[in-house]
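Notebook, bench 3.
Goal today: get a predicted structure for Putative arsenite methyltransferase from Halalkalicoccus paucihalophilus so we can plan the truncation constructs. The sequence was checked against the plasmid map this morning, with no discrepancies at the termini. Length recorded as 235 residues. Pasting the sequence as submitted so the record is complete.
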Amino acid sequence: MKGKEWYQTAEVAEEYEDKRFSRGGRLIDRQEKEAVSSALGDLKGKKVLEIAAGTGRFSVMLAARGADVIGLDISDAMLSQGRQKARGAGLSDRVEFVRGDAARLPFPDDHFDAVLAMRFFHLIPNPDRYLREIRRVTTDRLVFDTFNTPSSRSIYNWLLPMGSRLYDDDDVRAMLDRTGYELADSSHDFLLPYGLYRAIPRSLADGLYRIESGLRHTEVGDDFASVSYWSVRVS
């Protein structure tokens, strides 16, 4: 995995959210959380695993919505940030952070009601392997995102520290068929690059996002969206 060592450093963990989800990046954070909340629905009393939990921005949100959450990541430094976030929100009793490998999940079969894997599938060379392992531990639902081709991300993808595997709609559907999932729903977002939104103030980002929304909700907009959110069920 490109950038694996870079990702696990304490310096990257400490600056991660500031660099990605401040200024216009707050718009990205909002859109992703809305997509995840919509896809997972009512979580009260549910057991949820978040893979690639990072600094815990989704894990803590899911715990606040009533789920019992385990956030798994390869980076101790990232998980430390997540624990701080959970303590600050008063949710340490509802969310646990565990270091582990998503290809060999340390949980029994059918242990979770749902699994969330955001900012993950673009990093891995063999997604089928991970999808089968996720399928083993969940009884119902997987929600994940992909970065897409063709899209604006294709232009600068090779420059990114972690790189990206890019997908099109047929890639994802074939992958789900091979690994025993049924597509429940999907949505698509962001025609313009994330990097552009992060570089500008939130007020400008909101205005730019409204301008692109006219195209984004058309067939052409779906075809060229930078990111897609997928909600799938175990078949």
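The longest strand covers residues 138-148. Residues 25-40 form the longest helix (16 residues).
Flagging this for group meeting.
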